[in-house]
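Posting for a labmate who doesn't have an account.
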Amino acid sequence: MTAQAKPRRLLTVRAAAAEYGLSQWQLRDAIGGGQLTALRLPNGRIYIDRRDLDATIEAWKERARADAAVRRLRDPERWANRAERDGNGRFLSAPDGDVAGTADELKPH
């Protein structure tokens, strides 16, 4: 029985991109934009901490969920076509489990 190698904590931009299925430019843009922390060594090489990258990806997911909620509020009629309704036009539940009211109740005031 062989022991599995522990994954490296620090990854080069190229290795992180390959392992996480992202492009190198997506990672470089995230670093440049302050979304992702990186370590630059004196020799100029850039390394990304695996934990920081995981946290950044989780933040991107949270932002994507929030953006989707805002889109639903901005266009409730479009969202209404995807939700279950009762006989009075009230939404019973949305595909993601959200409970809502009528389209008029969801419109921003």
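Reply:
Got it, the structure tokens are right above this. DSSP finds five helices and five strands in the chain.
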